[in-house]
Amino acid sequence: MCGTRTYMAPEMLMVIGYGMAADWWALGISIYAMLMYELPFNNEDQNELVNSILYDEIELPEELSEDASNLIYEVSWP
Prior knowledge:
Residues 1-78 form the Protein kinase domain. This protein has four helices and no strands. It has helices at 10-13, 20-36, 46-55, 66-76.
């Protein structure tokens, strides 16, 4: 396993094996960061960061366009 935790898919953090879906997850996180100017899961405490990725849901602001919201959800959670 390698990479930046902030962009890691839950299955990578649980060490249960992963495939291309982990790359789609990272793309969704990247799109979110580009649109929102912040990361959806951002915590300096690494344990809290991992728990957020595993258990928290990403909440998109209402002012984000429907197309942008759909893109983030469809890329990350097909």
